[in-house]
Amino acid sequence: MASVDLRDNNLLGISWVDSGWVPILNPGNVLDYFSERSNPFYDRTCNNEVVKMQRLTLEHLNQMVGVEYILLHAQEPILYIIRKQQRQSPTQVIPLSDYYIIAGVVYQAPDLGTVIGSRVLSAVHGVQSAFDEAMSYCRYHPSKGYWWHFKDQEERAKPKSKKKEEPSSLFQRQRVDTLLLDLRSKFPPTFYQVRDVKKETEPPVELVKQEEREREPATKTSAPAPPSSKPPPEKRARLQ
After folding, report:
1. 63: region left, alpha or beta (phi > 0 left; psi from -120 to 50 alpha)
2. Is 11 exposed, middle or buried (0-12, 13-18, 19+ CB in 10 A)?
3. 131-174, pLDDT tens digit by residue?
4. Res. 8: pLDDT tops 90
5. 160-169: buried (b, 16+ CB within 10 Å) or exposed (e) per residue?
6. What are the Cα distances from residue 134, in Å, to 138, 140, 155?
7. Do 60 and 52 form a contact (C-beta atoms < 8 A)?
8. Which residue, among 150, 154, 146, has the nearest Cα to 136 in the 3D structure?
9. Which residues share a beta bridge with 5?
């Protein structure tokens, strides 16, 4: 496969992985994994390449001047952070960029300026989109002037059509019938016998007749006596 030079391009949008190294990746060989020829993040003019060709240990990097790579942080078995730095003396270095390896995939960590620029660009894009949408609702006429025309006004002006109620499906009907039968088995209905109130309040016919017979002799004995036939008083002659 032809090699592609990606050093002049923005490396924040790409990643690199070698699946053959992933099962055996550890803090001892992670720098060797990072220095693979197909890795676009690796600079071959660094001091690590010189030490590798001379078969020296990484401790000799402190005595050299130039670009070098070190293992900054390791969290086995999934996370490794490698730093690219410019060494000026055994005690003075200038960080250039950081790279993090997650599950064998190498990414370049964005710097603070790139993060702020991305956030500002997203905010400006949102504000510009809001202005564009607002301008789409603006209307103008020489006789009326400017006004706002929203889509909600057209929807309110249109008469609302009643939605047809969808009939229940066969599954819904069977399910409802099953629930009703279950409730009926758990709570069976109780029936109450309704009595005729009129028949209970009315006394029997024989009792009524007996009471009428008892009242008849009492009325005969207590009947009023006929008026007495007394003669009118006699008239007496007046004495002169």
Report:
1. alpha
2. middle
3. 898 888 888 888 888 888 887 766 666 666 666 666 677 767 77
4. no
5. eeeeeeeeee
6. 7, 14, 18
7. no
8. 150
9. none
Residue 218 reports pLDDT greater than 60? no
Q: Could you tell me which of 110, 91, 109 has the C-alpha nearest to residue 100?
A: 109
Per-position DSSP letters for 92-126, written without gaps between them:
EEEEEEEEEEETTEEEEPPPHHHHHHHHHHHHHHH
Residue 5 pLDDT more than 70?
no
Place of tokens 């992985």: 17
DSSP letters of 19-64? TTTGGG--TTTHHHHHT-TT-TT--TTSHHHHHHHTT--GGGGGG-
Q: Is the dihedral of CA 38, 42, 45, 49 positive or negative?
A: negative
CA distances to 9, 63, 99 from 67, in Å: 19, 12, 15
Mean pLDDT calculated for residue range 232-237: 62
Overall average pLDDT of the 211-221 stretch: 64
Q: Per the structure block, which two tokens stand in for 70? A: 């070190």
